[in-house]
Model the fold of this input.
Amino acid sequence: MGFFLETLFGGLMAGMLYSLIALGFVLIYKASGVFNFAQGAMVLFAALAMARFAEWIPKWLGFDNLIVANLLAFCVAMALMVVLAWVIERLCLSRLVNQEGITLLMATLGISYFLDGLGQTLFGNDIYSINVGMPKEPAMILEGMFEGGLLISKEDLVAALIAAGLVLALALFFQKTTTGRALRAVADDHQAAQSIGIPLNRIWVIVWSVAGFAALVAGIIWGSKLGVQFSLSLVALKALPVVILGGLTSVPGAILGGLIIGVGEKLSEIYLGSFFGGGIEIWFAYVLALGFLLVRPQGLFGEKIIDRV
Amino acid sequence: MLYRENGQFKTSYAADQQIFPIAQDRIAIGLLLLVAFVVMPMAGSEYLFRAVLIPFLILALAALGLNILVGYCGQISLGTGAFMAVGAYAAYNFMVRIDGMPLIAAMLLGGLTATVVGVLFGVPSLRIKGLYLAVATLAAQFFTDWAFLRISWFTNNSTSGSVSVAGLNVFGVPIESPVAKYLFCLTVVCVFALAAKNLTRTATGRQWMAIRDMDVAAAVIGIRPVYAKLTAFAVSSFIVGVAGVLWAFVHLGAWEPAAFSIDRSFQLLFMVIIGGLGSIMGAFFGAAFIVVLPIILDQVPHWFDIPLSTATTSHLVHMIFGALIVFFLIVEPHGLAKLWSIGKQKLRLWPFPH
Done:
């Protein structure tokens, strides 16, 4: 029982991080109808920027304070993501308005390749670490209830809390602020939003910046856990089935989908993995999403937008 | 002046329907085939065969297969590498488990196995479209990656996870030297290119294009989407599977699942986009571009004595590919093949623009 709960918690924590990346997909899809394949590359780019600036800034300015260095690096990395959002909107999206979804998907695939190359050229291609002072040692809880207690990684717990906080903040931003309302208007109907004076271009820059922010946070958390390196951009491939499962246009769907996939992955690996020779984590999420697509193509909370013949 | 079709009249349906209706094109293609089959084997260096021509031919074949699915039928696939892997491993198993299995038969059986798997993963396309289908094909990619790595039956219980083939021969002629490999690949590619070109001109090919352009309208005028989509998946996977067999058997010789990773799928999709969606020639242009560009980028710094590390070069290649994808999608969605046909169009009128 204790072991099962441990696995369950581990899955929930991992799922929270998948949700965080999936959130980036959903935000961009909601506001512009672009399925952003480059989200993973953005996570890698943001994490690389964060890791390297946290290292460089103290050197340039000549001080030695971890917190200040991290804060400054976060600001610089965020500024970089905003610039990136603006450049992508200017050079790519604004020229592909009214194209089919597939064309846009392939364009973001191109962007993702470009960002992978650019990030590693600018910031180097070694493994870097991000140290934001996350607690590394695991904690023991509920020792009275189970034999041996439950071993919980504090780092995962902090990460999950941050992710949950971010999701909450984004939900509030979408529901309560004027900008958030404008974003929702654009998501509902591009043309109607434009005709009442909402500037589409600026909205897209904002959405991509917010997605960049989500990518940065996800990058920092994953990066401080596993180190920043190229494989980080592959984490985003895990977030794809999350989005499919939860529904492309639904923020709660992204969260719930992430949790389901995180838990499902861990539990299936432990309890089913041995029947299949192990390592089924790689495809479990995809096969789950595929099965789900056949039964309910719009996902758990998605709008029914799929037309079929 | 040379490229002018004045006076070339068609007097029969056969003449009107031929693949290259302009005499100059026929001569050019004849010359190209002559160079490819006769001159190259005599003049080419071993490096040229191994590093450029053989990969180019095989990847062009795979891109051809993918183009049928993505370019002609409009079903996006990010799992091409998976179907290549299925072809390669199936052919390997036929070779190992059946004594005296000829190479050609193993190749075709590998292709057929890929067809079966391709149709299986094509079934979701009847219910879902566009980016949803992209995710479904990604599932194929991850599943085969895992299966060939973990299920040891597929690799004949090889301990290292990598498998190899040796002593290839066709009708008793050994396929060992680079020239022999090159000629074998060239023959296969020519046969498949001709078949694919003709297939796209049949009723089935037109049905694919109708589905791509507007599936609802196509269904209304009596095209069965099920038939059109599944044949596209079948033909495409067959060609891709054969390309996988060639890549594994002829190009690599010994391989492991990583040879058909998701990167290979993206690479092939890039070839199709850059070369030209919905064009047989585009597959060749795209493959040539993507095979040759990294080699050129590797060489250019040496000419100018600029020291660039291999890592930097590979990042540069990434960036250039990424930028080119976006560039082509914005400026010329039909790729290099369209530029080529624009060039020909201009040449027909040259030097008078009207």
Chain B touches chain A through 49 residues (CB under 8 Å). Residues 263 and 283 of chain B are 18 Å apart (CA to CA). The first strand of chain B starts at residue 163 and ends at 164.
